[in-house]
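Example 3.2
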Amino acid sequence: MAQWNLGEKVAAALPLYEKEFKDQVFYNTVLLNHMKENGGVLEKDGGTTIRVPLMTGKGTSEWFSGTDHLDVAPVDTLDAAEYTWRNLNASIVFTLDDELSNSGKEQVVDLIEAKIKQAELTISDALNSKLYNGTGSEARPAIVGLDTLIGTGTFAGIAGGTYTDWQSYVESSAGALTLAQMRTAKNTINQGKGGSPVSIISTTQTLYEKYESLATPTFQANPLVTSKETQRLIDAGFSALAYAGIPVVIDNSATATNMYFLNTQNLKIYVHKDAFMDKTETRRPTDQHVNVQHIVLRCALVTNRRKSLGKLTAKTG
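Structure, written as tokens:
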């Protein structure tokens, strides 16, 4: 039998990789990277659901002098959106063949590192994909992604038709992408109390290249156009241009024909503090020669103001 028990070795090794694993899951893809680096990923306690307070109206304020009576009637300004936790799992599996074929110490270390890297990429890709197209109604429910979150109808228990701050900016006229459409989207989304300016524009390669063709070299070189965050993303290995100081990036998970206008103050990924890439104990099925450890992420994509998010749809290059 092999000298090295891989199940015990990986159990001992995973805590050493834990911080790097958590970081790399969010650094491998551009939108997750931006959110992690700009306060868009928050650890939260448990609960069956997540309630996120939001402002849906204005309170009462008034000028007065002396003994004027003041309006103290309650105003329905605060409501809460309700989100459901979703669970994502990646398995690290070692078979008896793995154990027998990797008997040397260095081989064991290399194999463990490869398996951990594989789990890291698996979680990162699955999370990033559903960040856009998740519906929450899959056979195995995923997080509800941007295609659903950015909209005008009822979402997270709040009726968009009732509260205008719960209506995203959505422009869906079919045709080639224009700078005018991007300008209007940005300026519209940036308006209003309780919202924050657009911090990133994410899109497909086709629409990214269309924007690149519209933005002249002189335009791109303008210091009012470029930004530190755009340069940081480029330095991190991502394709990024800038529009009015906002990074414009390619995300291969973005839905075809869509361009997303986002900010990390009104859009967050909540991660459960007790299931933030946490590992389970080693499992050994009774009917198989395998050792299994699971890496678990419990999370949700949330917003406190849909009006501060937007998208262009049905756009072509």
